[in-house]
Automatic annotation (TrEMBL):
SUPFAM superfamilies: ALDH-like. Catalyzes the sequential NAD-dependent oxidations of L-histidinol to L-histidinaldehyde and then to L-histidine. Gene3D superfamilies: 1.20.5.1300, Nitrogenase molybdenum iron protein domain. This is Histidinol dehydrogenase. Its EC number is 1.1.1.23. Zn(2+) binds at Q256, H259, D358, H417. It comes from Dubosiella newyorkensis.
């Protein structure tokens, strides 16, 4: 089921992955802009009208009350709630280690300079609705913001046919510490978070996945607010040695393929025999999956296998692809981790499948796609902070270094800059 690639085809694969970011057509952007403009002009009235139009729900209030939240949570499976509580502990444990400290540097002549690390004031988290519900994403987006010190975290999620939110989403939001929840989806939710309405105050940054209209709206409001990313289809790349269990490899490739017909699943190995065994397992395991049709489309179009002469060659090729998820399914994986330069998140060993990180392990599952791991990072505490520098020069320091500053300003023909120094040197 995996398509074997020769050297020439490998180069095409690298190019394909890097060029398949979520493309948004002009038509979609125009429609999203129309929705944004409607929300900017009509505010809450637009939100109620658009919710009725797109979700077929008449709402009397956008905000989820505490009573409604508790009513939804009461429907949750206790075992699910326990698992989520344990996952929260792991995610907090990992992200607390990401916190940065401010610093102060001192030099001669009473010169001191430094940096302050400050949390964003407010963040909006978009949570998809519809058939899919991803409470794990609520934890992954909210917890780093809480650890960073964000004071106001707002969540929007589309209502169901009864005008309610999904119980699991409700529990995840309360567990993670979301401050405000609104029953609102689509581009209109992004517009409300960016520009504000009577009911919803604007935020400084918007994070979270969504459909193509949500992605388009995030792209359009960027600049008014910050956003996390415009994510493309998901990817997994498994580097496996000859000792890897083909059942494990196949299961992990399928775990990504079930997301989307555009999801990309790649096996790079030193063992031709393993490729054959994995293909047999893919046929066997995919046959019983509820999302078999999606899986088969994904693997037929974007499932690939590559055989290399060494694990070092496997990793070099992986670095060119810069996958969202990279599994090092090899003996002694820590010995090879240092060679990995470009990957959203790395999963080490035969038993650390991507699913561990997606839900429970503690690392974040919001990751750069489409080869952007070459220059982008996973969502984390850094995503919810800003850094502000400060500087102090005494009179003595300015007298000592003023001539050099004046010279640099004059060379750039910015005489007023130079004058700001000269007037102080005369005193």
């Amino acid at each position: 089921m995996l398509q074997p690639l020769n050297k020439q085809e490998q180069a095409k694969l690298v190019q394909f992955v890097s060029e398949r970011s979520q493309e948004i057509s002009a038509d979609i952007l125009i429609k999203a802009q129309e929705i944004i403009d409607q929300v900017k002009e009509q505010k809450d009235d637009a939100l109620f009208a658009l919710t009725k139009r797109f979700d077929q729900v008449d709402l009397s209030s956008l905000k989820v009350s505490e009573e409604e939240l508790d009513e939804a949570i009461a429907q949750c499976d206790p075992a699910f709630k326990k698992a989520m509580e344990m996952a929260k502990e792991n995610i907090e444990f990992y992200h607390k280690a990401q916190k940065q400290n401010s610093f102060l540097l001192e030099k001669e002549e009473k010169i001191y300079l430094g940096q302050r690390v400050l949390p964003l004031d407010s963040v909006g988290i978009y949570v998809p609705g519809g058939r899919a519900q991803y409470p794990s994403s609520v934890l992954m987006n909210t917890i780093p913001a809480k650890v960073a010190g964000v004071k106001r975290i707002v969540m929007t999620t589309p209502p169901n046919a009864e005008g309610k939110i999904h119980p699991n989403i409700a529990f995840a939001a309360k567990l993670a510490g979301v401050d405000e929840i609104y029953k609102l989806g689509g581009a209109q939710a992004i517009a409300a978070l960016a520009y504000g309405t009577q009911s919803i105050l604007p935020v400084d940054k918007i994070v979270g996945p969504g459909n193509i209209f949500v992605a388009a709206a995030k792209k359009l409001v960027f600049g008014k607010v910050d956003i996390d990313m415009i994510a493309g289809p998901s990817e997994i790349l498994v580097i496996a040695d000859g000792k890897a269990d083909p059942k494990f490899v196949a299961a992990d490739l399928l775990s990504q393929a079930e997301h989307d017909p555009m999801a990309c699943s790649i096996l790079i190995t030193t063992s031709p025999k393993l490729v054959d065994q994995v293909n047999q397992e893919l046929e066997k395991q995919s046959a019983v999956l509820p999302k078999r049709e999606i899986v088969e489309q994904s693997l037929a179009n974007h499932g690939h296998s590559i055989v290399c002469d060494s694990l070092e060659e496997c990793i070099s090729l992986s670095n060119l692809i810069a996958p969202e998820h990279l599994e090092l399914m090899v003996e002694s994986p820590m010995e090879y981790l240092g060679q990995v330069k470009h990957a959203g998140s790395v999963f080490l060993g035969y038993y650390t499948c991507e699913s561990v990180g997606d839900y429970f392990g503690g690392t974040n599952h919001v990751l750069p796609t489409s080869g952007t791991a070459r220059f982008s990072s996973a969502l984390g505490v850094d995503s919810f902070i800003k850094k502000s520098s400060y500087l102090h020069y005494s009179k003595e320091a300015l007298q000592k270094y003023g001539e050099q500053i004046v010279k640099m300003a004059q060379e750039e023909q910015l005489d007023a800059h130079a004058q700001a120094i000269l007037v102080r040197m005369d005193t």
